[in-house]
Recover the amino acids of this structure.
C-alpha cells in the first residue's frame, strides 16, 4: 500500500506531468500555427475546389477552407464528446484539444483507455468522464469505439442521441451493416463521417509536424442542413489536411477491401510467398529478406510514394524494367479474382459478420496478439529484425 506522503508526491508529479504536457501541446500548437500561416493564406485565395483526378473531376476541401477561427466559431456552443480512446480516438481528440475545440473524452473506467487518457493530460471530471456522463454533456457524439464495441455499446448510446445532436463516426461500418450491428441512428439528428486515411498515430504525428492527413467525408443524415459544412470543419480540426467526398457505403467497402488487400493482407501474403520460394531454392534468410522486403520498403516503395510506379520502374535497370513489365500482368491476372472475391465478401456482409463475431469475444485481444506473434516469430520477420539493425541509421 502507498503511504500518504507517497500518494501526495505521486499526485504532485502527475500534476507536473499534466502541466508539462499542456505546455508542450501549447508550444506545439503555436509552432504549428506559425508553420501553417503562410501556406494557408496563399491557399485561401486559390479558390480551386474541383481537381482533376486522372480525368475525373472531384471536389476537395482543404485546411484553408476552414481556418482555426472559423471552426472554433462554428462549434463554440457545442461540446464534442469523443467516445473511445483507441489509436484513432486519441489522435483526433488530442488534435481537437490542441486546436482549441471544446472536446471531452468519454471512456469506461475499467478498460485501458481511462489511464491512457489521464497520461495524455485529460482530467477526470473536467474533460474526462465515464461514457454516460460524457454523453449527457456532448452535443456532437464522436463514436470512436472499436467497430465491434460500437455494436455492443449502442443501447447505451442511443438514448442520448436526442434531437439537435450530431453523430460523428470515422468508419461507416456500424451504420452500413446496420442489419448486423443494430446501429440505426434516430432520424432527427445529423449523422456524418470523417475517416482519416491512416492510423490514429499518423493522424497525430502529421498534425504535430504541421501537416494534415487525407480524409474522407460523408453525410448519412442532414437534418440541420449544415451537416456537410460541419463535418468538413470537424475533420480539419481533428487533423485532416484534405477531405475527399464519399458516401458511407463507399468508404466502408473501400476501407475493408484496402486493409484486407494491398495495404495489409495482400502485402504480407506476397512477401511471404516470394520469401518462401527463395528459401526453398536455397537462398539464405538475409538474401531472401533483402530481395523481398528490405529493398521494397527502403528503396523502391518510397519512390512510388513520391512520384508513382512508372518513376520507380524508370529508376531501375533496364533488365529490371523488362522483367517487371512482363510479369506485372501475370500477377494482375492471378490477383484480380482474389480481389473480386474479397469485394464480394465485403459487400455481402460476410467480412463484417466475421469481424464482429471474432472481435466481440472476451479474449479477442489475446487471440489477435497470438496471431500477430506468429507473424513476428516467423523466420522472415526474425531475419528482418537483424537486417533492420544493420541499417545505417541504426548503427
Ligand atoms: N485505427 C485506425 O487506423 C482507424 C483509421 C480510420 C478509422 N478508424 C475507425 O475509428 C474507430 C475507432 O478505431 P480505433 O482503431 O481507435 O479502435 P480501437 O483502438 O480498437 O479502440 C478501442 C476503443 O474502444 C473502446 N471499447 C471497445 N469496446 C468497448 C465497449 N464494449 N464498451 C466501451 N468501450 C469499448 C476501448 O476502450 P477500453 O480501453 O476501455 O477497452 C477503446 O477506447 C473505428 O470505427 C475504426 O474503424 C480507425
Amino acid at each position: 500500500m502507498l503511504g500518504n506522503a507517497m500518494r501526495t508526491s505521486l499526485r504532485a508529479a502527475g500534476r507536473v506531468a499534466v502541466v508539462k504536457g499542456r505546455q508542450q501541446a501549447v508550444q506545439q500548437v503555436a509552432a504549428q500555427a506559425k508553420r501553417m500561416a503562410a501556406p494557408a493564406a496563399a491557399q485561401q485565395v486559390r479558390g480551386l475546389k474541383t481537381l482533376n483526378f486522372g480525368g475525373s473531376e472531384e471536389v476537395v476541401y482543404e485546411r484553408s477552407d476552414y481556418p482555426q477561427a472559423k471552426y472554433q466559431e462554428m462549434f463554440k456552443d457545442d461540446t464534442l464528446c469523443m467516445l473511445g480512446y483507441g489509436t484513432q480516438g486519441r489522435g483526433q481528440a488530442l488534435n481537437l484539444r490542441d486546436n482549441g475545440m471544446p472536446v471531452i473524452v468519454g471512456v469506461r473506467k475499467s478498460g485501458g483507455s481511462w489511464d491512457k487518457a489521464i497520461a495524455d493530460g485529460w482530467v477526470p471530471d473536467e474533460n474526462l468522464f465515464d461514457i454516460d456522463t460524457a454523453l449527457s454533456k456532448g452535443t456532437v457524439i464522436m463514436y470512436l469505439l472499436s467497430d465491434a464495441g460500437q455494436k455492443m455499446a449502442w443501447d447505451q448510446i442511443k438514448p442520448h442521441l436526442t434531437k439537435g445532436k450530431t453523430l460523428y463516426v470515422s468508419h461507416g461500418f456500424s451504420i452500413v451493416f446496420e442489419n448486423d450491428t443494430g446501429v440505426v441512428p434516430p432520424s432527427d439528428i445529423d449523422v456524418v463521417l470523417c475517416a482519416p486515411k491512416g492510423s490514429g498515430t499518423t493522424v497525430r504525428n502529421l498534425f504535430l509536424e504541421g501537416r494534415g492527413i487525407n480524409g474522407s467525408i460523408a453525410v448519412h443524415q442532414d437534418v440541420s442542413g449544415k451537416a456537410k459544412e460541419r463535418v468538413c470543419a470537424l475533420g480539419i480540426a481533428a487533423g485532416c489536411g484534405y477531405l475527399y467526398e464519399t458516401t458511407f457505403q463507399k468508404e466502408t467497402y473501400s476501407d475493408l477491401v484496402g486493409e484486407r488487400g494491398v495495404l495489409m493482407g495482400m502485402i504480407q501474403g506476397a512477401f511471404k510467398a516470394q520469401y518462401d520460394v527463395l528459401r526453398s531454392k536455397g537462398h539464405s534468410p538475409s538474401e531472401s529478406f533483402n530481395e523481398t522486403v528490405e529493398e521494397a520498403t527502403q528503396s523502391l516503395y518510397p519512390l512510388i510514394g513520391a512520384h508513382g510506379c512508372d518513376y520507380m520502374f524508370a529508376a531501375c535497370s533496364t533488365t529490371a524494367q523488362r522483367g517487371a513489365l512482363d510479369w506485372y500482368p501475370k500477377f494482375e491476372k492471378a490477383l484480380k479474382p482474389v480481389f473480386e472475391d474479397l469485394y464480394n465478401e465485403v459487400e455481402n456482409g460476410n467480412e463484417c459478420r466475421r469481424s464482429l463475431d471474432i472481435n466481440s469475444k472476451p479474449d479477442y485481444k489475446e487471440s489477435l496478439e497470438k496471431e500477430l506473434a506468429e507473424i513476428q516469430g516467423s523466420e522472415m520477420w526474425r531475419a528482418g529484425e537483424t537486417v533492420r539493425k544493420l541499417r545505417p541509421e541504426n548503427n
